[in-house]
Amino acid sequence: MKIKVINPNTTTSMTATIAAAARAVASPGTEIIAITSRSGAVSIEGHYDEAMSIVGLVDAINEGPVADAHVIACFGDPGLLAAREIAAGPVLGIAEAAMHAASFVATGFSVVTTLERTRIIAEHLVRNYGMEHHCRRVRATDIPVLELEKPDSNCRKLILEECERAIVEDGSGAIVLGCAGMADLNAWLEDKLGVPVIDGVTAAVKFAEALVSLGLRTSKRGDLAYPLHKPYKGALSAYAPADRNPAPTRKLG
Ligand code: 5HY
Fold first, then answer.
1. Closest approach atom of ligand 1 to CA 180
2. Is the dihedral of CA 158, 37, 138, 175 positive or negative?
3. E strands along 68-205, which residues?
4. Rounded distance, CA 79 to CA 20, Å?
5. Per-residue pLDDT tens for 158-187?
6. Whole-prediction pTM value?
7. Fewest CB atoms less than 10 Å from the CB: which of 50, 79, 210, 238?
8. Whose CA is nearest to atom 8 of ligand 1?
């Protein structure tokens, strides 16, 4: 099967980290197609960056080889539901995937992320995903996303210390890493901490493989049906949805 793993920020070195993590866990029959968005912010660190990233995400889904599933490799899961509307197969966000994985292996987890503003966005996600019973706390490290790309930064130390505080102070049994740029840290952290450390990229790839193997596709009934056909104006006129929804053949109920 083919899984497109899309980095919605425009930093190719981060896509390389994400791709390596995805390929390390992919099954032998799975091809990982790693894509860097070609438009938008170099790092996604707020609601505006997220909103602006969605056009690049849509391009990455629509262009190139058709994939059986898509992974949105950014912890805010930007454009997740829009992506589910336009894709036929499953679409997984790394935050949603990581939180679900953590809930399977611990009764309580903490998220360790980058900036304070990202911490607040991640708290919204916890509530949106109904994870309040599982997530004990979301913690920031005050690391800007692109600092994770610098080999000489002290990011590893700061993240390790925050994870240690999460285990001791939150009583958490697992850690969710709150940035795709941390996709190369989970094994190292797990070794130091002795608890499961979940990177959403790898969790999402394995969930995507499982869903495709089960023959599950995104429901096209209700709000995840293909977008309604209509004209778009201005700079987004090329994004006007085509008429993809089949006419209903049988009325239910
Ligand atoms: C991410 N930003 O995973 C998010 C999360 C963050 O460019 N990739 C980004 O740390 O804000």
1. 3
2. negative
3. 69-72, 91-93, 109-113, 135-140, 174-178, 197-199
4. 23
5. 999 999 999 999 999 999 999 999 999 999
6. 0.97
7. 238
8. 74
Q: Which residue has the tokens 């994985």?
A: 101
223, burial (CB in 10 Å: exposed 0-12, middle 13-18, buried 19+)? exposed
Q: How far is the CA of 179 from the centre of ligand 1 (A)?
A: 5
Quickly state the pLDDT bin for 246 (edges 50, 70, 90). Answer: confident
Q: Is the pLDDT of residue 105 over 90?
A: yes
Angle between helices 155-170 and 186-193 (to 10 degrees): 50
Residue bearing the CA closest to ligand 1, atom 11: 45
Residues 163, 137: Cα–Cα separation, whole Å? 11
Ligand 1 centroid – CA 43 distance (Å): 6
- Protein residue with its CA nearest to atom 10 in ligand 1: 179
Query: Ligand 1 test: best mutation among 11, 45, 48, 113, most atoms within 8 Å of CB?
Result: 45
Share of the chain above pLDDT 90, in %: 96
Question: Which domains does the chain show, CATH number per domain?
Answer: 2-94+204-239 (3.40.50.12500), 95-200 (3.40.50.12500)
Q: Quick one: tokens of 184?
A: 């190369």
CA–centroid distance, 124 to ligand 1, in Å, is 15
Confidence band, pLDDT 50/70/90 cuts, at residue 251: confident
Q: How far is it, in rounded angstroms, from Cα 3 to Cα 8?
A: 15
| Degrees to nearest 5, angle at CA 99 with 60 and 29 | 50
Binding pocket residue ranges, ligand 1, CB within 6 Å = 9, 43-45, 74-76, 113-114, 118, 145, 179-181
